[in-house]
Amino acid sequence: MPAADILTPDLLERLRRRAPEYDQRNAFFDEDLRELRDAGYLALFTPVEQGGSGLGIPEVVACQRLLASAAPATALAINMHLVWCGVAHLLSLRGDNSLSFVLEEAARGELFAFGISEPGNSAVLFDSFTAAVPQGGGSYVFTGRKIFTSLSPAWTRLGIFGKDSTDPAEPSLVFGFADRSTAGISALDDWDTMGMRASQSRTTLLQDALIPADRMVRHTPVGPHADPFVFGIFSLFETLLSAVYTGIGERAVELAAEAAAGRTSQDVPASQDPHTRWRIADAAIRMDGVLLQLEAVARDLEEGADHGSFWFPRLSGLKLRATDTVRSVVETAMKTAGGRSYFRGQELERLYRDVLAGMFHPSSEDSAHNSMANALLGPVQDR
Predict the structure, then answer these.
(1) Mean pLDDT computed over 365-382
(2) Is the pLDDT of residue 4 over 90?
(3) SS3 sequence, the chain?
């Protein structure tokens, strides 16, 4: 199913029209969410026989590019729901249906949020500062602090993880899903940022939040490992995140071309100026490179390509290239549009603030380079 069949021109126009209003008010995208839910967008990955669209990773990537071209903050927040659905989809392709309930509940309108990031935790998925204490029978209580929890005002399911240190010599990481009604979960009203404001990615506090055994989904070791569940989280996060920023870059190129056609100097359109033409062409060429890599990675994930030890650097490299390239492309578009793009209320001004958020998502620049160095050269040896 083509992305344009789900995100129709009329729907995209409404999303684009509301984006600056959400940004100005620092408000959550309630109306966008309602329309996207009604359009079946939460169930893109859910099989058709379960009430979804039955899309694969490449098709969902195309949807997220299109959504981000209209409403970047909405796309970024919805991304976190789609990551969990994408993990369930990817595992099912490998014969693991442990997250099938995620796809089923998404088709019923449940909204999944991503409670993973923690302040100061550079190990991300390989360690946690959140305490997970077993309660018997497989249930756990979680106490800790999660940051950048997109969809904070509206999520109905929160995927979280923490560390079970019952055996200090061999601690483990445990993953589960909490309902919105779970006691001990609260959110701070602390999201007042430069950009991506409508995502409302607030801090989440966990205080003895109980997740029952039937909602616990994984136990993994502390430290680097190749568990398919963790690989699924990392791969879908990096790929869908890159799709969002690619959509922003594609929109910036469109706006640059429109600006060039509308600006004149001595009655000559800027679109006829050789320097302007080169600048816009260069931006489009850079976006072509990002798009080709994004589509290749999405296809390889869907088809189960074996990149061995290069999978992690390939994914982190995609995220780094996408966010860095798109940031420079938005800058190019602003230069093309001229000083008016610096004024509040201009779409490019908002896109510039939104795209800066790409620097703060994992994987970081240092992490991406370290991952590639380890794949090429092996880990640094202790002396």
Answers:
(1) 89
(2) no
(3) CCHHHHCCHHHHHHHHHHHHHHHHHCCCCHHHHHHHHHCCHHHCCCCHHHCCCCCCHHHHHHHHHHHHHHCHHHHHHHHHHHHHHHHHHHHHHCCCCCCHHHHHHHHCCCCEEEECCCCCCCCHHHCCCCEEEEEECCEEEEEEEEEEECCCCCCCEEEEEEEECCCCCCCEEEEEEEECCCCCEEECCCCCCCCCHHHCCEEEEEEEEEECHHHEEEEEECCCCCCHHHHHHHHHHHHHHHHHHHHHHHHHHHHHHHHHHHCEECCEEHHHCHHHHHHHHHHHHHHHHHHHHHHHHHHHHHHCCCCHHHHHHHHHHHHHHHHHHHHHHHHHHHHHHCHHHHCCCCHHHHHHHHHHHHHHCCCCHHHHHHHHHHHHHCCCCCC
The token pair that represents 251 in the structure block: 């929109």
Tokens of 131: 């305490």
pLDDT in tens, 21-41: 999 999 999 999 999 999 999
Per-residue pLDDT reduced to its tens digit, 191-248: 999 999 999 999 999 999 999 999 999 999 999 888 999 999 999 999 999 999 999 9
Structure-token pair, residue 16: 């684009």
